[in-house]
């Protein structure tokens, strides 16, 4: 099986970008180890703090954020970082070319039940001559990403990675600490009979999503004329991985549950990198009205509606939104 650097070199990926990706992965290997230790290393449970988004921070949110931040800033490969767990962006090496946005531990409420969690990352180039302390360097649409990926800490630790030449899976060989290529070109089936949504929010959804899900649930007695199955892992990284592996539609739509928070998922750390992985595997990622990677961000912690997955099913869902 092939190691990551030669695979990327063959694609013509710049050496500096490969080094940066390897730096992110160095942190992820340590996270994989710590998550795997679970209760043995005393890292489960919550802190007494909330993050900038008003969510209770898990001990592992804080620890994984610090790890990624330290390793990335020490490396010299990044001009600045933006993290879901940081109030503001953090300046790095002024001479570096790249900026990294990350969700250090997606699905962290799953840590205490020994269920799926993962690290999501997005890499872009900083504008020429930009000040590393200037937050606006992150205000670029997702289509500018030069690499995106996640590391899923499950029964095995899997990296899904794209540098714009397809989506690949690498599996961490924990004996040697190496990510080995285990699927060269992930391809999402265009048709699916599986959907993922937090159905407890149904009464808060907008009419288009209400109608779409009602028709899925009606199965072979409704307009779709066939049955659908539902899954919800409560960690986007786990749900997106299932969609990349065997197809499906995943959505966290706009809702009216909390008027101050119409959308849940974050554009920079969650929606954009997942959208790139999905599109590179032949799927679609939309808000319901526009392509996720076309959105011009106006704040680092901006949230968006997400509908992604199998091409034909996402298109059907979007037709309800017209
Ligand atoms: O990071 C936000 C997140 O935890 C996603 O990973 C996940 O898809 C979603 O929120 C879960 O939401 P809920 O708590 O509504 O199930
Ligand atoms: Mn998350």
Automatic annotation (TrEMBL):
One protein family per Pfam: FBPase
UniProt-listed InterPro entries: FBPase_C_dom, FBPase_class-1, FBPase_N, FBPtase
Catalyzed reactions: beta-D-fructose 1,6-bisphosphate + H2O = beta-D-fructose 6-phosphate + phosphate
Any Gene Ontology biological process: fructose metabolic process
Predominant localisation class: cytoplasm
Record-level GO cellular component terms: cytosol
Pathway(s) served: Carbohydrate biosynthesis
The record's free-text note on cofactor binding: Binds 2 magnesium ions per subunit.
Fructose-1-6-bisphosphatase class 1 C-terminal domain span: 188-321
Start and end residues of each Fructose-1-6-bisphosphatase class I N-terminal domain: 16-183
Binding site for substrate: 106-109, 198, 264
Protein name: Fructose-1,6-bisphosphatase class 1
Organism (species): Pseudoalteromonas lipolytica
Source lineage: Bacteria, Pseudomonadati, Pseudomonadota, Gammaproteobacteria, Alteromonadales
